[in-house]
Each structure stands twice: as C-alpha cells, then as structure tokens.
Amino acid sequence: MDYEKIYQQLIEKAKYRVLLDNYYEKHHIVPKSFGGSDELNNIVKLTAREHFIAHRLLAKIYPNSGMVHALWMMSNIKKYDKLITSHMYENIRIKHSIFISKSLIGIKRSEETIDKFKKYQNNRTQKHKDKLNNYLKNKTVDHKRNIGLAHKGILLNEDHKQNISKGVTGEKNGMFGKTHDEEAKQKIIESNKQQIECPWCCKVGGIAIMKRWHFDYCKENPNGLERPKMKRKSPTEETKEKIRQGNLGKKSLWKGKTISTDAQKEGIKKMVETRKKNGSYKMSDEQKEKLSQAHLGKKGTPCSKERKKQLSKEKSKKIKCPHCGKEGQCMVMKRWHFDKCKQKEIKNE
C-alpha cells in the first residue's frame, strides 16, 4: 500500500476546505524533525481523527524516525482512545520500544545521572519491599493454603533452576562480602531459641522445624497439607573432587587401623562383666553421679497440660500379649512382649 500517496491526498483535501466544526488541530505537513518550518504554507487544519491518521501514516512511511514516538505520545492522550484498537496499540508500542532502544545505543551518561538513577531505583525497591511485607503480613491462613495448593505439583525446568541459582550466587547475592552485625547475630540466636507449640499434636520445638513439619503439615491435622518430601541426592563428581582436595594433607586418625573381631569380643565381655557386678545391668553409683552432674542446669522441653493428660492415659492403658496372655501397661508390654515374647520363640521352635 502506498502510504505516502494517501498522506498527500489527505493534506490536499484539508488545504482547500472550510471546517464547519469549531474544533480543529494544526498539523505540520513537513514535520519539524525533518526540517519543516512554522510558516502558514507548512501548516494545515485537521480534525482530531484526521490528525491521528496523518501521524499514523507518517509512522508507516518513516518507521525508523521520531514519527513513531509522536504517534505513541498521541495514542496515550484520552481524546484519541476511541480511534485506537488493541492490535493498533500493540503495533505502536512495539515500534516505539524498538525506536527508543536504538536511539539510546552508544550514549554515555555522566556519573551524576547514574547516581540519580541508583537513588531512584533504591527508593523504588524499598517501597516495593514495604508493600510486599504489608501484603504478606495481612494474608490469612486460608489465603496461604490456597497459594500452596495452587503451586503444588509444579516442577521447575533445569534452565529455570539454573537461572534462579545464578541470580543468587556470587556478587549478585545480597550478602556477598558482608557479615552480620552483633545485633543481627543476637536477634538470630534469640529467634532460634524461641519455641512454639503445635495446636494439633501439642509438640513443642523450634520455629523453623515446627513450621516445616507441624501446624498445616501436622499428621494430626485433618485438613493438613502434604508434607514436603526429603530429597537426598548423591554428591556429584565436582563435590567429591572438592572434598578430596580439601582433605589433602590432613592426617586421618583411622588410616591403616582396623578393629579386629578379638577386640570387639573383649569389649563385649567387659560390658557384660561390669553389668553383672552392678547387679542385672544396673548402673553403678559412679555412673549415676556422672549422669546427674551432666544434666545439672539443663531444662527439658515444657509439656502442655493436654499432652500430659494424653501421656497419662496412654500409660494407664492395659494391653494383653497374644503369645503368653499376660496383661500390663502399654510401654512395658511393647518392650518385653509381642514380637519379643519368650513364648513366641518356644512356639516357633
């Protein structure tokens, strides 16, 4: 299609007519970026629709010029919204981005402008982080569960994984070449010391472990999510080589040494003799004293009232061994009867 011919016909038509509407827009026949002047013979009166069409034709005639930028600026004005279709907008946007990228190639900016860009970007990222933090804090439990279910089963490609790792490793990492302050270290230590209780199984533990295996992932939770599977990967040849290089020059304590069967038998005999002396595998007073000294000042994990009631009920339950017919408490019977019962061994013989 001859766009230049259509443009000339539009201009010739507008030159020799009288506009009945009061509203009109002035248009430079030869654009100022191409050396056009502000004289009357270079200006023509057009309607809003004709003005937009004229600039669209100029962008078609001269695709690698500022006419694309002028058309893009006009397409963002409200009065031209009704004249632009979705396909037209997409085409204009792509051409405008190509024109801008080509025009910026080879331009060197001063250090002042670079610093301004950095300050603007830092302020922008900080505002974005604050918005994200507020958004994450205000999320409900159901919202979090829905997000987890939406991402469930989605596997990342190897290329995607490598791109993520590249964006975090080396100098791109936020903590590259940095160390935590003493205040930050103390905060991390205090946060790790904090213990929380699962509302479903009443277990108590550290925040990171409990959030991973309990609460939404707890086995006692009827509407719980599926627990994350532990993926154990065998070390690659590179990691093996790194370990080997790291161990070079170090003396191994067990190099050239093996435990003989005689030494094993002697160790077992000593254990049996000491247990016989103490009386049917009972600990001596010295061993008890050592254990008590080792546990002095150490506090066990606190147990809730509901968990204590549950444990007392489990201990008070009585079960019967199917082999010998004896009855007793659950913990004792499971230790000495059922699969370990003496009557079972006699029957098998």
What's the total count of β strands? 6
State the separation between the terminal residues, measured CA to CA. 101 Å
Helix content: 40-55%
Main β-sheet description: 2 strands, antiparallel
Tell me, briefly, the overall form: elongated
Please, how many helices? 15
Q: Assembly type of the shown chains?
A: single chain
User: How large is the share of residues in beta strands?
Assistant: 5-15%
What is the topology, as strand order, of the major beta sheet?
A: 1-2
Q: Low-confidence parts lasting 5 or more residues at pLDDT below 50? A: none
Helix and strand pattern: HEEHHHHHHHEEHHHHHEEHH
Structural class of the secondary structure composition?
mainly alpha
Q: For the CA atoms, what is the radius of gyration? A: 40 Å
Mean pLDDT: 79
Could you describe the 3D structure shown?
- The chain is mostly helical and 349 residues long.
- Among the domains are: 101 residues, no CATH class; 47 residues, no CATH class; 32 residues.
- A two-stranded antiparallel ribbon has the order 1-2. The protein has a two-stranded antiparallel sheet with strand order 3-4. The protein has a two-stranded antiparallel sheet with strand order 5-6.
- Strand 3 and strand 4 form a beta hairpin.
- The radius of gyration is 40 Å and the shape is elongated.
- The mean pLDDT is 79.
